[in-house]
Amino acid sequence: MTIQIGLVLPDVMGTYGDGGNAVVLRQRLRLRGIDAEIVDITLDDPVPDSLDLYTLGGAEDYAQRLATKHLIRYPGLQRAAANGAPVLAICAAIQVLGHWYETSAGERVDGVGLLDVTTSPQEARTIGEVTSVPLVDGLTEPLTGFENHRGGTVLGSSAQPLARVSKGAGNRLGDGVDGAVQGSVVATYLHGPCLARNPQLADHLLSRVVGELAPLDLPEVTRLRTERLAAPRRA
Fold this sequence. Notes:
The protein has 235 residues and is α/β, with parallel strands linked by helices. 27% of the residues lie in helices and 30% in strands. It has 7 helices and 12 strands. The protein has a 6-stranded mixed β-sheet with strand order 2-1-3-4-12-11, sandwiched between helices. Strand 1, helix 1 and strand 2 form a beta-alpha-beta unit. The longest helix has 13 residues. The protein is globular.
């Protein structure tokens, strides 16, 4: 069996190298002897609902609108999520998967509706290192990443935060939380790529597909995490 990882719209939702999350997922499976492949889904393709898990990344305003229209036109991601396929949404993808988001020009855009969140521009852009404490069962290690966004996301009652922020802004200045978890969707503002810096989160997603995973001893990943968790925040 080959695990298929959907990299959704890397042509418009790949501004910050978030496509690396799919690479991390594939490699962590292969290191355990499990065959895996990445399926690129571009604006030229309908979104299939048959893949095992999906990742989406960040984007600028115009690209974000293109992605939103495409996902609404081809609702394969929505069907897959409804069937329990894990979905990792990074930064702008949180906004796209929400009820609606406002662009920096003040235009309100209807979202995909997979997350009970809304997003409006903040007065200031939040940029810098983020550290947070996960609030989700199965995650025990601090999360680390880099945020760069002006949108401020507010969670509704059906979504819960992924983590409590200990350094940085997260979803919105002053709220003290990052990300959203709802159904099979896990969303966060962490770039890095996120899963390269947070292997426990990567395995948390993978275990939903393949079951319990044997641990991996990767000293280089441990060194990266140690260095990034100690990194100062520079706004």
